[in-house]
Each structure stands twice: as C-alpha cells, then as structure tokens.
Design brief:
Number of domains: 3
Shape: elongated
Radius of gyration: 45 Å
Strand content: 5-15%
Number of helices: 5
Oligomer: single chain
Largest sheet: 4 strands, antiparallel
Strand order of the largest sheet: 2-1-3-4
Structural class: alpha+beta
C-alpha cells in the first residue's frame, strides 16, 4: 500500500508535468493536503494511547481485560493500565444506593472526627498558653472557688438574719394559740419562710457548683500535666474538659 505521504514526496505533481502554467498553484494545494495527512498520522497513536486498558479478576477468579469498564467486575476494583502496562489508577467498585449511603455516612463521620481533632488541638494550645505551669493553674482554681465560697458565706449570713427576724414573729404567735393568726402576721411568717428557703436553695446550688468546678479543674490539670510533659496538643485521650474558668 502506498504510504499516505508518498504522493507528497514527489517533487513534480504527476498529473501536471505537461502543464507548467498550473504547477505553482498545484504545489500549494498539494502542500496543504500533505500537511493534513502528516497531522492525522501524528495524532492517531496519541488517541489510541489515551483510552487505557481495564484489568480485573472477577468473583470466579477469571482475569479480564478490556478497553472499557468490565461488567463482570463492577462490584470490585479495576486497574486502569497504560498501553505500556504501567498502572494509571485504580477504579473503585460501583455502589448501589445502600452502599452509597453507608459510604456517605462513613465520610460524614470522618469529617466530623477531623473537625473534633482540630478543635482538640486548638483547645489544648489555648490551655497551655493560659496555664504555662501548675502554679498558674492553682491560682486560677482558687480564684474561681473563692467566688463561690464568698457567695455561700453571704447566703449563710442572710439565712441567719432571716432566722433572727423570725424569732419575734414566732413569739407573737403565742398570743394566738387556738386562734387564727392575723393576716399581717401570717403574711410576714410566710414571706420569711420563702426567703429562708430561697437562701437554702442558693447555698445548695453554690455547693454543687463548687464540686463541679473543682472536678473540672482536676480534669484540666490531669490533661495539662501530660501536655507539660511533652504530649502533642490534641493527642491526649479523652474529650478536652470544658473550661472551668471564666
């Protein structure tokens, strides 16, 4: 078969040898045709190489190769090879709706864990900046506890005042044994009872908060000790404690 550019290699157009008037124009036309032929021959191998070869082993252990995704291996990975046999990439298996939902959920949980890890690193770094040593941490703990202790002392003082205010009211009730108490006296006693109960509730809440804050500082100190010892921020197991300090 005559090569596509054989005609182009001829120095004189065969059909125009005896027509000198048209030789110049003919050479221009032939040069364009030859250029197109050379370009087509050049891109042919490139297009052939771009497709690649799919290869896999199916569920029965049989190996398949094809120039497109292999139907027998849609449920498993397929290797996409270059023409020289080198691996270009691995094609993942196709998933049904349930598998796709599971993959999306797995991806969501992975993203969530990555965000939590970044948050743990950030909080550990902030913790170490705030408390470079145990002395600073102890000072912050005592300041937080002192606020609560002062609140408890104030409530206890107010409770004692209310108890003292109740004594003359109770003495006045002695005049009304077996009788109905006057509305004004009864109202004062009920108000005193309500105020005493409110102060007792405040004291109970502050004592509960005292225990909670102490526990948070304990957990924070345990984490800080590992960070001070050289553990990388975010690497200490367990959820970073919520800040115990304002």
């Amino acid at each position: 078969m005559t090569p596509p550019d054989a005609f182009c290699r001829s120095t004189t157009p065969p059909l125009l040898v005896h027509r000198p008037v048209h030789q110049a124009l003919a050479r221009v036309v032939i040069a364009g045709v030859c250029g197109l032929a050379v370009w087509a021959g050049a891109i042919g191998p490139v297009q052939a190489q771009s497709g690649g070869i799919y290869s896999c082993v199916d569920a029965q252990g049989k190996r398949h190769t094809a120039d497109r995704p292999i139907p027998e291996c849609l449920d498993r990975e397929q290797r996409l090879l270059n023409r020289d046999g080198s691996e270009r990439r691995t094609v993942p298996p196709r998933m049904n709706a349930e598998e796709r939902a599971l993959a999306e959920e797995r991806k969501r949980l992975q993203d969530q864990a990555a965000v939590a890890q970044k948050d743990a690193v950030r909080r550990d770094r902030n913790l170490m900046m705030r408390f470079p040593d145990e002395v600073a941490h102890t000072k912050a703990r005592e300041a937080a506890l002192d606020d609560l202790r002062r609140g408890i002392v104030g409530s206890e003082r107010r409770l004692k005042e209310l108890e003292d205010e109740r004594k003359p009211l109770m003495a006045e009730t002695e005049f009304y044994k077996q009788r109905k108490l006057p509305f004004k006296l009864k109202s004062k006693l009920e108000a005193n009872d309500a105020q005493q109960q409110a102060q007792r509730d405040i004291i109970q809440n502050q004592q509960t908060e005292l225990v909670r804050v102490n526990a948070l500082y304990d957990a924070e100190l345990a984490r800080l000790k590992r960070l001070w010892a050289g553990a990388a921020p975010g690497s200490v197991p367990g959820e970073p404690p919520a800040p115990a300090h304002r």
